[in-house]
Write a sequence for this structure.
């Protein structure tokens, strides 16, 4: 994507990568130019640096469209499009409501898209706050209206569930069952 790195991370480059001054212009990029840069001792950035840049730049207020564009770039990138969930675990690159959260490990927390048609970010009942997180409603709408490839890639790599009983209930049961068996939660049966 022409100028993606400059547009999205130019204002955060020195914070994320001290000592770096700028990005190589895409219009000047060629096999010959890269050979010259290698000869001069200038190495290309390691792919993981992109996640560092997203995390660092994401600490500043960003529009939801900026986040979606980052996910679209990752989904189409030759390196990140082939990476699994573990490559993103712990990275603060998910936007839930108005805050940036980490991509959770398997059963840490259940991240879900809010129900379609929700007009604004929804608040979860207090009982579920430690188990569930809803992504930004605006981001969910961008996923739904945008490229199926980007939506599918992001939901898979970040382990985001759709707000559907067939998808979210089994994950909720897997999350709670160990606590029930250990006695950490009690079951109360009420007879009506």
């Amino acid at each position: 994507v022409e100028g993606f790195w400059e547009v999205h991370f130019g204002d955060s480059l020195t914070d994320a990568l001290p000592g770096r001054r700028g990005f190589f212009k895409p219009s000047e990029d060629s096999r010959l130019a890269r050979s010259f840069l290698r000869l001069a001792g200038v190495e290309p950035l390691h792919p993981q640096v992109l996640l560092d840049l997203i995390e660092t730049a994401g600490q500043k207020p960003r529009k939801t469209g900026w986040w979606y564009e980052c996910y679209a770039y990752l989904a189409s990138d030759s390196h990140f499009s082939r990476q699994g969930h573990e490559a993103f675990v712990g990275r603060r690159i998910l936007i839930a409501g108005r805050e940036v959260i980490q991509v959770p490990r398997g059963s840490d927390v259940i991240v879900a898209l809010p129900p379609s048609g929700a007009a604004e970010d929804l608040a979860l009942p207090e009982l579920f706050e430690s188990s569930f997180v809803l992504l930004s409603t605006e981001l969910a709408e961008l996923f739904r209206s945008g490229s199926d490839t980007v939506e599918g890639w992001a939901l898979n790599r970040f382990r985001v569930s759709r707000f559907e009983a067939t998808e979210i209930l089994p994950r909720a049961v897997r999350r709670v069952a160990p606590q029930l068996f250990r006695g950490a939660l009690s079951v109360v049966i009420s007879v009506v």
